[in-house]
Specification:
Elements (H helix, E strand, L loop, with lengths): L1 H23 L4 E4 L10 E3 L11 E4 L2 E5 L8 E6 L11 E5 L4 E2 L17 E3 L5 E5 L4 E4 L4 E7 L8 E5 L4 E9 L10 E7 L9 E2 L4 E2 L11 E2 L10 E2 L4 E7 L9 E9 L1
Length: 267
């Protein structure tokens, strides 16, 4: 009896040790392919192995691969190619994570982000990437994002401005910034804002923390992702609301080639 009990405990510990890393991974990680993958290759080299776990999943170009049980760590990930085998070019996006985050159906309806163990989730049959969005409290397909850009190419263009009027309700999902020439010094920031009614660009609701446009904060040709406001209601645009930029603290001197990209999900 004692031997049987010890065997049972040992087996239980072994199962928990194997299951632990997979169960702990509750979100998908996105990276890129570092080296082109042939149709017969049984491994994928990625830029970052964050989220990769033995027995987990790897999804690239509509192909789902199971990460081999032999995988321990590193960016060279051994895979089992089950669904289809095609070649994949370098630099294409890759999703890594727990196998349960890869599904065979679309998500729909309301949800609570804090209650979802896996978000986003990838429908491997059609490539849809579903996230339980905390702002609108529903599942949204990130493949359906609308991209809007605000451009101010010359120094004279670096003024408060509106650049998009919503034709329907949207939720702001991400804001990116890049400039070809950064401000050399001083203090110059850009605040992405939402304007309603007759609000001036600088009077609108801040969608994110101020973007540092000075070289010491954001170097030229460097894409920066702004930190969105935690007030989720502010991220929702109604039809007729506008998106704009508020240049603050100082007047642009050297700043040029500014592109601010808003990623929106239609509601």
């Amino acid at each position: 009896m004692r031997t049987s009990f010890r065997s049972f405990v040992a087996a239980l510990v072994a199962v928990l040790c194997l299951a632990g890393p997979v169960a702990a991974q509750t979100a998908l990680s996105e990276t890129t392919v570092s080296s082109a993958v042939t149709s017969s290759q049984n491994f994928v080299v990625v830029a970052s192995a964050t989220g990769a776990v033995a027995g987990g999943g790897l999804y690239v170009d509509r192909e789902y691969m199971r990460i081999a049980d032999s995988y321990v760590s590193g960016t060279r990930i051994p895979v089992i190619r089950a669904t289809r085998s095609v070649s994949h070019a370098a630099s294409v996006p890759v999703y890594l994570g727990n196998a349960n985050a890869f599904i065979n159906a679309d998500r729909d309806g309301s949800c609570t982000a804090a209650n979802e163990q896996y978000s986003p989730q990838v429908n491997v049959s059609n490539g849809a990437v579903w996230e339980c969005n905390s702002a609108v409290k529903k599942w949204v397909n990130l493949r359906g994002l609308v991209v809007v850009t605000c451009r101010a190419l010359l120094i004279a263009d670096q003024i408060d401005q509106s650049c998009f009027t919503a034709n329907r309700p949207y939720v702001v999902y991400r804001v990116n910034y890049v400039a070809t020439t950064a401000e050399a010094g001083g203090t110059l920031t850009i605040v992405p804002r939402k304007q309603t009614g007759t609000q001036a660009p600088a009077s609108g609701t801040a969608l994110a923390t101020a973007i540092n446009a000075v070289a010491s904060g954001t170097a030229a040709q460097t894409v920066a992702t702004a930190t969105l406001t935690t007030t989720e209601a502010n991220l929702i645009l109604a039809a007729g609301d506008r998106l704009g930029l508020d240049y603050t603290d100082d007047t642009a001197g050297e700043l040029a080639g500014v592109t601010v990209t808003f990623w929106l999900y239609p509601l």
